Amino acid sequence: MSTNTMKAVFINEQGGVDKLIYREDVPIPTVSPDAVLVKNRVVGVNYIDTYLRSGLYPVSLPFTLGKEGAGDIVQVGSNVKNFKVGDRVVYLGASAYADYSSVSEAAVEKLSDDITYEQGASIGIQALTAWTMVRDGYKVQKGDTILVHAAAGGVGLLLCQMAHHLGATVIGTVSTDEKAELARENGADHTIVYTRENWVERVNEITNGLGCHAVLDGVGKSTFQDSLSSTRRLGTLISFGNASGAVPPIAITCLTAKNLKLMRPQLFNYLATREESQKWWGEVFDLLKKKVIRLHVHKVYDLKDAKQAHIDIESRKTTGKLLIRL
Ligand SMILES: NC(=O)c1ccc[n+]([C@@H]2O[C@H](COP(=O)([O-])OP(=O)(O)OC[C@H]3O[C@@H](n4cnc5c(N)ncnc54)[C@H](OP(=O)(O)O)[C@@H]3O)[C@@H](O)[C@H]2O)c1
C-alpha cells in the first residue's frame, strides 16, 4: 500500500455479499473546502448497509459502504470552522468502510475524551435512531405500553433501554429464547418469541385487549399488518426499517378504524442542520455518560471481513452492535 492509497470495501454493482470488494490500493479521498478527512479507528455496521449493497436502496456506483465512524481528523478543508487536525470525532453518512473518509463538516461531532472510538461508532446511527423515535416520532410517557420488534437487535436493545428509562412497559419481540433473555436484561418487561408464539394474541393479553400506545417496527414486511392490529386506538405505528423486506404500498384508510398515526422516519432528516445535529448527538452522549444506555457489542471485525459481517447481520444471529476496527 503506497502512502496515497488505503484499504476500503466497495461495490461496483449491487447484489449479494459476493459483490463486496476489499482492496488495499484505493485512492485516499480528496477533501473539498467544506469537508474534513477522518482517519477511521472504528466504524459501525448497520442493516442499512445491506440495503445499499443489495439494491433495496439506490446508490451511485462505484459505492463505498459504511454510514458511520469514529476516528481522528487528519486534514481540514479551507472553509472548515469548527474542527482542527487532531480532533477526535464521530460522523454519519460518509463512506466509512475505509481507512479514511472525507466527511462534510456538517456531519461531524466532536468526541469527548471519556468516550472511546468504539462507543462513538456504536451510538451513531442506532442510538440516534432509537432516541429520535422515542422523543419525537412518539414521545414515550410514563405508563405507556410500547412494542419493540427485533428487541435484541442494534436499534432494538437501545429502544428497550430508552423506553424503560422513560417509564414505559416494554414488550419486545425476538426470534429466540437467548434473544428474549437479552431483551429482558435491557429493559423489556415482556418478551415474545414471535417465530413460535402468536405475538398478536400475546400483545392483546398483555394489554387487556387495548393494544400498545406505540409500535416501533424495524422488521417491515412480515410484521407491518399485525403491527397495525397491535396499536391501540389513537396510537402510533412507526415503521422504520425493512429487515424482512419492504412494506408494500398500503391504503391510507387502514388508519381510520382506530385513528392511528403512522410514521416512516429516516434518521438523517432529524440532523439536517448544525443545531439539530448538536442537539440529538448531545442528548445521546449524555445518555451514555449517565449510563441510561449500555452498549452491547456483538463482534468487532477486520475490514477485510466486512462480507462476514453482512452475512452475520442478515442471518438473524446477531445481537446489539457490529463494528469494524481499522
Ligand atoms: N429509519 C432509519 O433511519 C433507520 C436507522 C437505523 C436502522 N433502521 C432500521 O432498523 C432496523 C434494525 O437495524 P439494526 O441495524 O439495528 O439491525 P438489527 O436489528 O441488529 O438486525 C435486524 C434484526 O431484524 C430481525 N429480523 C426479523 N425478520 C428478519 C428477516 N427476515 N431477516 C433478517 N432479520 C430479520 C432480526 O431479529 P430477530 O431474530 O429477533 O427477529 C434481526 O436480528 C432495520 O430495519 C434498519 O433498517 C432504520
Estimated structural class: alpha/beta
Sheet of most strands? 7 strands, mixed
CATH fold assignment of the largest domain: Quinone Oxidoreductase, Chain A, domain 1
H/E series: EEEHEEEEEHHEHEHEHEHEEHEHE
Task: Give the count of helical stretches.
Answer: 9
Strand content: 25-35%
* Annotated CATH architecture of the largest domain: Alpha-Beta Complex
Q: What count of domains describes the coordinates?
A: 2
N- to C-terminal distance: 15 Å
Full CATH superfamily name of the largest domain = Medium-chain alcohol dehydrogenases, catalytic domain
Please identify the top-level CATH class of the largest domain. Alpha Beta
Q: Kindly state the mean pLDDT as a whole number?
A: 97
Q: Would you count the extended β strands for me?
A: 16
Q: What is the global morphology? A: globular
Instruction: Give the uncertain stretches in residue-range form.
Output: none
Helix content: 25-40%
Bound molecules: NADP nicotinamide-adenine-dinucleotide phosphate
| Rounded Rg | 20 Å
Domain Enoyl reductase (ER): 15-324
Keywords: NADP, Oxidoreductase
InterPro entries: ADH-like_C (IPR013149), ADH-like_N (IPR013154), ER (IPR020843), GroES-like_sf (IPR011032), NAD(P)-bd_dom_sf (IPR036291), QOR-like (IPR047618)
Pfam families: ADH_N, ADH_zinc_N
